[in-house]
Every structure is written in structure tokens, then in C-alpha cells.
Amino acid sequence: MRLLLVRHGQTPANVTGLLDAEVPGPGLTDLGQEQADALPAALGDRGIERLFTSSMVRTQVTAAPLARALDLEPVVLPGLREIEAGALQGKRDTVSVQSYLAAAYAWAAGDRDERMPGAEDGHAFFARYDDAVRQIEATGAEVAAAFSHGAAIRIWAAVTAQNVPSDLGRNRHLENTGVVELEGSSADGWRLVDWAGEPIGGDELTDLSAQDPTGERF
């Protein structure tokens, strides 16, 4: 199958650099809504048969315009949520941000025993994200779009795709409504088709002033 992993539109935390992984979390900024509104024109002709979101509000709001255009009802899969921030939730100082990213990158480097301060370790993250993807596959869709989150998409895709180095998630950015496209299956393996790091609706939807810790290169 083809799996399009779509990052949600911009949130207030993306602008100010806060670590915000609490469920259900905030909605979108005005720019974030514009990014979401651009998705039908950008993805409407991709043959998407099913839509999925995380349990966080920002993915559900982002998916809504595309869902209306395609006449599809998004399915909520909690496993697609952002990597938990735990004790770092709501912080934006350099030490906290680096601690969050360091734990996530340790998972990508193979150390899944590393635990996010006060939250999940790599085993728990990959288990719940893998399970969500298997649920998507079980629908039998040939093309599906899953609305998820910056750090979660980057780490999961970089580790799971067989044709890329595991440090790809560290060295490639994924801005709001950026899309990572994979092809394959959990049984046979996944292959990276495209990593579109910029907003899929066009460069005019990029906020160069945003201090976005989960979308920037680690």
C-alpha cells in the first residue's frame, strides 16, 4: 500500500517553541488553518481511500478539509499521537528541548531502552505506532493518509523505511503539513518514496520565524 504520513498544521506551540505532546492539545493558528485548507488541492488527486488521525485535536482539524473534499470519515488512532514529552511538557528552554530530541534520536540510533523523562521509552513508542499502522493496513486500502506529528513521523519513518539511513529523521526537517510517503507493508517492509519537508500547499504557507522544535533538524 501507499501510506502518506501528513504532519498537522501549525499550532501556537510550534510558533513559540514549546514542547507540547499532551492529549488532546490545542488547535491550529490562523496559518495552520490555511495550511489545512490547502490540502484538498494538494492531495485530492492522490487516490486516497482512507483517512486517519491521532487522538490530538490538531491532526483532526488539519484532516477536516481533505475529509470533506473526499467525502471520507477520518478514523482516530491514538497510536499516531506525538512522542510524549512527560516531565518536559510545556517547556521551551534549550536544555529541555535538547533532552527531548536526544531521547528520540537515541531510539532512531537503536537504543529503545532510552526513556523520555517521565514518559515512554522507545519500545513503547514503536509498539503503539506500529500497531496504528497495522490497523491502517487492515482496512485493505491501497492508498491511505495518516495525520500525525513532527517528531513521531520523523523517527518512525526513518527507522522503519528500509531504503534510508536511520539518521534521516535527524537530518531532514518536516514542517507543518509536510508529507512523508512510504510504500510497502509491515509484513514485507516499507520503502521511502518521498520526503516533502515543506508545507504541501506551497512555500507561501511556510513560517520562517516559527521556533518549532519537533519539525527542525535535530
From TrEMBL:
Q: Give the GO molecular function terms.
A: phosphoglycerate mutase activity
Top-rank lineage group of the source organism:
Bacteria
Q: Does the keyword Isomerase apply?
A: yes
The answer to whether the entry has keyword Isomerase is yes
InterPro entries under this entry? His_Pase_superF_clade-1, His_PPase_superfam, PG/BPGM_mutase_AS, PGM_Phosphatase
Q: What UniProt keywords apply to this chain's record, in alphabetical order?
A: Isomerase
The UniProt entry, under SMART domains, shows:
PGAM
SUPFAM superfamilies, sorted: Phosphoglycerate mutase-like
Task: Fetch the Gene3D superfamilies from UniProt.
Answer: Phosphoglycerate mutase-like (3.40.50.1240)
One Pfam family assigned to this protein is His_Phos_1
In short, the EC number is 5.4.2.12
Protein's UniProt name: Phosphoglycerate mutase
Q: Which organism is it from?
A: Curtobacterium salicis
